[in-house]
Fold this sequence. Notes:
470 residues, mainly beta, 6-stranded mixed sheet, 4 helices, 9% helix, flat, disordered N terminus
Amino acid sequence: MGSIFGSMSLRWSAVLLVCLFCIALSPADNVAHAASSSDVNLIINGVVASADVGPLIIGDRTLVPIRLVSEGLGWRVDWFAATRQVLITGDSDDQHVLLSIDDPVAIVHGQTYTMDVPPLIIGDRTLVPIRLVAEAFGSEVGWDDATRTVTVASSPSVEPEPEEEEVGEHPGESSDLSEGELTSVALVDTSSVYGLRFSIGGPFYTEVLRETDDRLTLFFEGVSVPGDMLGTHDFPQDSPVNLVRFRPSAVDDELYVTVDFRYPVHYELGADEEGFSLDFARIQDIRVDSDGQLTVVSNMNIKPRVFALRDPARVVMDFHGAVGDPDLDGERVNTDRILGYRIGRHSRAQGDNFDGVRVVLDLKDDLVPYVTHGTAGGLYETTVGLTRSSVAGRRVVIDPGHGGKDPGATGVSGTKEKTINMEIALYVEALLRDAGADVIMTRTGDYDVYIYDRPEMANALKADVFVSIH
Length: 470
């Protein structure tokens, strides 16, 4: 099929394709004279795609959810909320399409094109004219009127000839995909690994179809499975996995696998000569040395959020998406700075503000944490040291400029200076409090404060520092 964009292509040859694009957008605009999305099908590179918002036919133009297509073809998608624009990037930054919601003008590889139908927002999904975008990256778009099906595929004219290789030389990728056999799925728990193992003998191909906080959907090609393995497999209550479901395809050597999680968990996917793996991030060990440094050992490079609290003095380490070794427990220690530490599992389902593991250091005094990262024996180490900040014990008065009837400057999008000043002030306040400073704000809301009362407040409080933010 002809294309005004030349012969650019998108090519995938990896064993594992993992495409994560999840864009939160603004409410839907009204769409007139559009075919219902429920009667239009979408197939991307031979795989049927489904979503809460499907393709739309407006006039003779087809609009599809850009997230679905980007997952199937490997495009990167960035959303700019302030300007309501979508930037779609191909193999390189030189290959890009910039679209604006409700604007028919598109920028394609630096050139301007006018579309018959502009991009739209339906629900929380962005729908774009698929032919213009697909051809920009060398893909092809087709339409089957009998089945009302839109097809999007990488251009076959630029696909390279497969290289000859020995079967099984590169697990997960082969010109002969008929020999892989899935024999078992099990939860593996060793000193360094914790996760699911799909035992597969022979070469196979794997693709991630969908990832959410509570579910992972995989597609296997070149894999046969015994009949007694089809269906649902349950896992222990104390594991992150609730169940694994195997569903056959209409094709003999294709298989769909769904993994349901009990809670959001950080994991890594891999493939080797033994099959396919799904490893979970786990806190393996915690130790405190004589210098008062605490080290958390994990099987993955998962960096925690670290912050200090006062009254009582403590340091908190939040490992989002991690699980803890069941044998780990808190401990009382005797160092010059640390009283002990505690470890706990946090879950949003139980009212917590994150899912993962929290480690709390109980301190003898208000100290500021500093964090270092390293590796040892194939494991990852996060070490928290403690020091006294130069601002600890100092009184700081922060003055968010303007407020109330005085908005300050107003930006081109209508943003008021008083609002930005307050956001910056609250951020600085949190940093200073974590460092042990005594912080007072001249205003904590959107109300008037007389300009001369602001420095006078700092003087009356005998502040060490007065910071006015504008």
